[in-house]
Structure formats: C-alpha cells, structure tokens
Amino acid sequence: MFRRLIVATLVFALVALPGCSSTPAAQPPAATQPPSVTLTVFAAASLTEAFTEIGRQFQAAHPDVKVTFNFAGSQQLAQQLGQGAPGDVFASANKKQMDVAVTAGRVASGSAQAFAKNRLLVIFPKDNPANLATLQDLAKPGLKLVLAAKEVPVGQYALDFLDKAVLDAAFGSIFKDDVLKNVVSYEQDVKAVLTKVVLGEADAGIVYTTDVVGDSAGKVGRLDIPDALNTIASYPIARVSDSANADQAQAFVDTVLSPAGQAVLAQYGFLPAEP
After folding, report:
1. Is residue 23 domain-resident?
2. How many domains does the chain divide into?
3. Which of 84, 98, 143, 156 is packed most tightly, with the most Cβ within 10 A?
4. Among candidates 47, 78, 94, 124, which has minimal Cα distance to 231?
C-alpha cells in the first residue's frame, strides 16, 4: 500500500511539472520564406498606379517573386536599357521607344505586344487662375503652360495635337506658335506635368486621361480634346531578351495581357489595346 502511494505521488508530480503535460506545447509559426526572385519592370510613368496594382496581384499569385518597378519617361527607360541597365520587362507609352530598345538588342524584334491605349487631356488647377474655358484659351498671352519634353511620348503627342489644330479654322494658323510661347517648362515625364499643375506652378498642362483618375481627379479641372485633334497612344510591352528571370518575366507580361490585368488597366482609365 505504501509503495503504491509513493508511485501515485511521483506520477502526480511529473504531470504537474512544466512541459510534462500530455497537451503538446504550442509550436512557433513557421517562418515565411522570402521571395527567391526579384523581377524588375521598366514602365512608363503613366502606368504607375495601374502597374502597382497589377504587381500586387502578381505577387499574390507568385509568392516566390518580388516585383520592383522603375517608373519614368519611356525615353529615359529606353536609354537606360540601351546602356545595359538590368531589367526583366519593358512597358513603353509608344512604339518609338520600344523600337529603341529593340535596336539596342535588349528586346527581341517582333516580341512586343500592345496592351493598352490612352488619350490626351488638357488640365488646369482647380481654381482655374487663367480662366480657361476652351482649348483656344491655351494661346492667351501670359498663360503659363507646362508640357512634357518632345522626347517623352506624351510631349510628342501634345505637339501632334497642336499640328492638327492649326489646320482647323476654329484655331487658326498661328495657334501652335502662340501656344508654344506660353510654355514655361518641358518635363521629363507626364507625372511631373501633373504635379506642377496640381501645385499651381502652371496654369495648364497636357497629360493623359489616365492621369486624372482616382485621387488626382478632384485636384484639377479638365478640357477634353476632341477625337479629330487627339492622339490615341498605343502602349507595347515585352520581356527583356536577356532577362535573368525569363519565365517570371513572361508570366508578368501574360498577366498584363490577361483579362484580370486588362480589368485593372480599365479601372485606371486605359482603353483596351483592341477596340
């Protein structure tokens, strides 16, 4: 009897000791594995919001991949690629700069695919200090106008608009000259044009319609440019031919072209590549 009492006491003591419970101890959560691949996407500045969202969706579907973006004017991106900057995907705001990357040997000829379209818009600060009411008002003496540089796709598109306008009797033959006299700065990407107008550093600017979607929509006023004077910009995308992550780069391109990617682009105001 005494021996059984001692055994029972020892069993009770062992059960009561920390770590001796029959309930398994809680295990620490498994460490999350960091992405094994970093994908660098060179993309036109006008794609900033849409591609950032597509990047988030892509990472959710590919947890082993981290997407980083280099947003800038397409001409800057093409130049960087031409100088050997490492990258995996190039999305340009026009074919001209994609062709620069092709000529430099960074994108395979014939591999680029159109994935979106865009159009021009005149914007002005919300309080409209220059009292803009019509496109003709861009020629008013003393107006402070900001454009993207002509090397930037949207800058060339703005010049194309002026070239078309001088052929229209409603504007007159000197309209372009009078408008260009009002330019106070030429910027290296479209976001810089938007920022200067929002901050009131210019009375007007020419940007894409997609630049005044979302938060920016309430910060500026707008003048629409009719189809006859507008330029419908076509955006091509391609995998960089010497990408160190060819499979993942192609997967990102495919995502942009997919219905899900196209839905995001539409959400941010882009037109479909095909009508």
Report:
1. no
2. 2
3. 98
4. 94
